[in-house]
Amino acid sequence: MLYREAGDFKTTYREDAQTFPIAFDRVRYYLVIAIAFGVIPFVITDYWANAVMVPFLIYAIAAIGLNILTGYCGQVSLGTGGFMAVGAYATYKLMTAFPEVSILIHVLLAGGITAGVGVLFGLPSLRIKGFYLAVATLAAQFFLVWLFNKVPWFYNHSASGQISAPERTLLGIALTGPNTTAAAKYLVCAVFLFGLAWLARNLTRGTIGRKWMAIRDMDIAAEIIGVNPLTTKLSAFAVSSFFIGISGALFFAVYLGAAEVGESFGINKSFLVLFMIIIGGLGSIFGSMAGAAFLVLLPVFLKNVLVGQLGWPTDLAAHLEFIIVGLLIIVFLIAEPHGLAQLWRVAKEKLRLWPFPH
Amino acid sequence: MKLRFAALVAAAMATAVPALAQDLHFPSLSYRTGPFAAGGIPFADGYADYFTLLNERDGGIGGVRIRMTECETAYNTEKGVECYEAIKGDNPLVIQPLSTGITYQLIPKVTADGIPLHTMGYGRTSAKDGTVFSHVFNYPANYWDGASIIINYLLGENGGSLQGKKITLVYHNSAYGKEPIRTLEELAKKHGYEFTALPVDSPGQEQKSQWLQIRRDRPDYVLMWGWGVMNPTAVQEAANIRFPMENFIGVWWSGSENDVLPAGDGANGYKSLNMHQTGMDFPLYDDLKKYVIDTGKAAGAGDQFGSVLYSRGIYAAMLAAEAAKKAQEIHGTPNITPAMMRDGMEQLEITEARMAELGLPNFGPAFSVTCENHGGVGRGLIQQWDASAKKWNVLTDWIESDKEVIDMLVAEDAGAFAAENSITKRCN
User: Cβ of A260 and B72 within 8 Å?
Assistant: First the structure.
């Protein structure tokens, strides 16, 4: 069979420690990258970009961000929507204040600003944990939304409190604004997701990731073996918020083009991203993407099948969508509480042993 | 075999291509689910029923049949964008998102794609300025008109002076609810009333503290910019604190049966703006009954017939159909494109005679749209709820808004938008 370890020999530690030690996985990974960057940009349509791919890529970034905090470091957070709002409003302020600077730099800076805010709200994590910390981050969610609604400086004193992304270009190609092509939108988000996923994977494999996991598994034991909880927890908050800030920035600037804090970054966003990592799998980069794909694509797919193909009334379809997605989530979590990533891992285990399972 | 397949494909293509051109596509971005469904359902039903009537009675518009599609947005911007992307390639003649949030997303997109957007009495107020917003229309009236109409009505009630009066605005804490604040502040300077604004977070069931503050402050008048589940809650809360209901005035999106019925007798006397008449005493409703309701072709459950928001859906569809007719006239072809539809909307003229001809005499204000003015005439009326008869009574004639203040604010906001997005003004 294709999927096997037999004959796949490692002669150095370096080879043994690579992300995809199995040849088949490696090939598949390169194939996905090749399709993502070599094929999709040329065939993508406006509908596929704006309704399917771009939201998926952006939510995947947010899910990886939350997964670093919750999945790897064990700090439960309900502040994702608020941190996304920080990223969005930071980009907006930067975009309007420094129009000559590239939007890509603004997005990264917005991530940096969000990291700072995240650290600030991460401070209580040194004293409290679990549900109590969840409540503290929930406060961040409500405070940030309230702040962006209350202070007109954040939305440049516009009458309605909406922020809208002006057109910004890179090498003459529009990356934000209404004239952005589907391919440009897709590529910006895909490049960010690729870069950040790569970064996350390598962070979680290294010293810092091991420290996060030590804190997650047992904080007192971790402290005894020399992990500093202060820097470890705060670094998790910083890195996680950096990712979430970037996703918020892209969400506002590239995907929607205009946003309203209560509607776009409300508590529902926090729950949605949390569901993504729970369904996808805690502590897994692939799981973050799988969870994002599941929760973004499934409703669109169901809508297209029920309304587009079967011609059912839209309200009936919308209600059925809730029921089906909800049911599937329950079934998934009963069948595989560790999420889609674990399902995938088990499938691979079985394939390696096939056709002679124990 | 191969030949037959090729012939089939050719036949399919031959029939498919003209079929696309031979209808007028009016999409409906509706919401029949979520916390705003109470407002979304009757509007969507009315919108669909009017087009069904045109198909059944007149065979469409100018001899071309109308095709309606519906897309559920649940008042959610992301779903709204998904809907827009799904329909934009399908020749949609006019997009009516029925949500200020979605409108803000769509304004740059429709302008780039060349599809007209009609945001009747909602959306971005400064889109009235046609020199900046080429594809956006918000006739017959907008939020700033609405705010000014209420103040003008109150001026009339108080002998022409609001000096020293306290006016409080209870608003949905979103782009929609924030729209009237600037105008009300500006008018406060002009008329000398004391203005406070109290935000209610979406969706709006939580407003106890706001009403406690109102009870403490004792304002003379409370205005409301609410929608969906926020409205009945506010009416109930006002009744609970025994606020005099005749001093409580909602915008046109806060004045339907759904908003007052839950509060029962407590809602008696509550007032709201409206941009059109309601009730079923119009000849058009007889036609609707004959061709749509009685033949079982009504949209939805068919139980919204004749309600305020159903009538608003009818009104929206009527304005769209009239613009389509105008576009057919201008371009001399019954098969119009979105670009032609835009021209039709820009030259739309609704006269009282035309309204009577349509079976809706004096239903809405007479107005005409021009290249510079996409906002219509800016008139509205005040209606009051009679809880015992379960019926809205129209109290006033059409009230004009304060153009002096509004035109200044519109020019300012549209100018800022043009500068931000480097738009060159048109209409020269």
Answer: no
Q: What ipTM was predicted for this assembly?
A: 0.84
Nearest to A161 among B74, B175, B422 (CB): B175
**What is the number of other CB atoms lying within 10 angstroms of the CB of residue A195?**
12
Angle separating helix axes A267-280 and A285-303, nearest 10 degrees: 110
Q: Specify the pairing of strand B166-172 against strand B221-225.
A: parallel
The Cα–Cα gap between A170 and A56 comes to 23
- What is the secondary structure of B103-147 as a DSSP string? HHHHHHHHHHHT--EE-TT-S-GGGGBTTT-SSEE--S--HHHHH
User: In this predicted structure, what is the pLDDT of residue A168?
Assistant: 83
> Model confidence over B112-169: pLDDT tens digits?
889 999 998 888 888 888 899 989 998 888 889 899 999 999 998 888 888 889 999 9
Residues of chain A positioned with their CB less than 8 A from the CB of B112? 178-179
Strands B166-172 and B391-394: unpaired
DSSP state of B158: T
CA-based Rg of chain B, rounded to a whole angstrom? 22
DSSP B246-311: GGEEE-GGG-SHHHHGGGGGGGTT-EEEESS--SS-SHHHHHHIIIIITTT--STTS--TT-HHHH
pLDDT (0 to 100) of residue B9: 44
The answer to whether A325 and A279 have CB atoms below 8 angstroms apart is no
Residues of B with CB below 8 A from A260's CB? 77, 101, 104, 174-175
Predicted confidence (pLDDT) per residue in B197-237, tens digit: 999 988 888 899 999 999 998 999 999 999 988 999 999 99
Q: What CA–CA distances, in Å, run from A121 to A53, A211, B209, B386?
A: 31, 20, 27, 52
Contact yes or no for B77 and A50 at CB 8 A: no
B194 pairs with which residues across the strands?
B166
CA distance B125 to chain A (A): 9
Q: Pull the structure tokens for residue B151.
A: 């103040």
- The amino acid at residue A21 is P
Specify the DSSP class assigned to residue B391. E
Contact B86 A47 (CB under 8 A): yes
Q: Which one, of B224, B155, B217, lies nearest residue B192 by Cα? A: B155
Per-residue pLDDT tens digits for B322-363: 999 999 999 988 889 998 999 899 988 899 999 999 999 888
Backbone angles phi, psi at B399, to 5 degrees: -105, 135
Instruction: Please report which confidence band the pLDDT of residue B11 belongs to, taking 50, 70 and 90 as the band edges.
Output: very low
Q: Nearest CA of chain B to the CA of A199: how many Å? A: 28
- Tokens representing B87 are 């329909």
Burial of B361: CB neighbours in 10 Å, binned 0-12, 13-18, 19+: middle
Judge contact between B66 and B24, C-beta under 8 A.
yes
Rounded (10°) CA dihedral A270, A273, A278, A282: -110
The predicted pLDDT at position A358 comes to 66
Other beta carbons within 10 Å of B7: 10
| Contact residues for B143 (Cβ-Cβ < 8 A; gap 6+) | B121, B122, B125, B179, B180, B183, B225, B251
CB B138 within 8 A of CB B125: yes
Burial profile B44-63: b = 16 or more Cβ within 10 angstroms, e = fewer: bbbbbbbbbbbbbeeebbbe
Q: Look at the alpha carbons of B37, B82, A308, A340 in this order and tell me if their dihedral is positive or negative.
A: negative
Q: What's the Cα-to-Cα distance from B185 to each of A175, B191, B195, B405, rounded to whole Å?
A: 37, 10, 7, 11
Question: Is A160 within 8 Å of B85 when comparing Cβ atoms?
Answer: no
Q: How far is CA B154 from the centre of its chain?
A: 23
Q: Does A245 touch chain B (CB under 8 A)?
A: no
Please confirm whether the linkage preceding A21 is cis (ω < 30° from 0).
no
d(CA A185, CA B170): 39
